[in-house]
Amino acid sequence: MNMHDRRLPQPGEAIVEFLQSDFRVVRTGAYVRCAVTGEPIALEDLRYWSAERQEAYATAEASLKRYVETRRR
């Protein structure tokens, strides 16, 4: 999300395209869900994601857990 993009989020879940070092909001919303824990993550708090898997993660620990899970296959 571009830090200059100051649109007010719509209530509900956003649809986001995760890029390598940024993300693009496809449909506005207040949050996305963590792919590991299922907890909502406010877009302004989103710090961890996978562009490869198009998933968001609530914490670094959740990101590492998913990384380890997918590398075992």
What does this structure look like?
With 73 residues, the protein is α+β, with helices and mostly antiparallel strands. The chain has a two-stranded antiparallel sheet with strand order 1-2. A two-stranded antiparallel sheet has the order 3-4. A two-stranded antiparallel sheet has the order 5-6. 16% of the residues are buried. The radius of gyration is 12 Å and the shape is globular. It has one helix at residues 60-71, and strands spanning 15-18, 23-27, 31-33, 40-42, 48-50, 55-57. The chain has one domain.
Low-confidence runs: none
Radius of gyration over all CA atoms, rounded: 12 Å
Structural class: alpha+beta
Task: Provide the succession of SSEs.
Answer: EEEEEEH
Taken from the alpha-carbon principal axes, the silhouette is: globular
Report the span from N to C terminus.
31 Å
- The fraction of residues in strands falls at 25-35%
Number of strands: 6
Side-by-side strand order of the widest sheet: 1-2
Number of helices: 1
Helix share of residues?
10-25%
List keywords for this structure.
73 residues; alpha+beta; two-stranded antiparallel sheet; 1 helix; 16% helix
Write the layout of secondary structure elements.
Layout: E1 15-18, E2 23-27, E3 31-33, E4 40-42, E5 48-50, E6 55-57, H1 60-71
Antiparallel strand pairs: 1-2, 3-4, 5-6
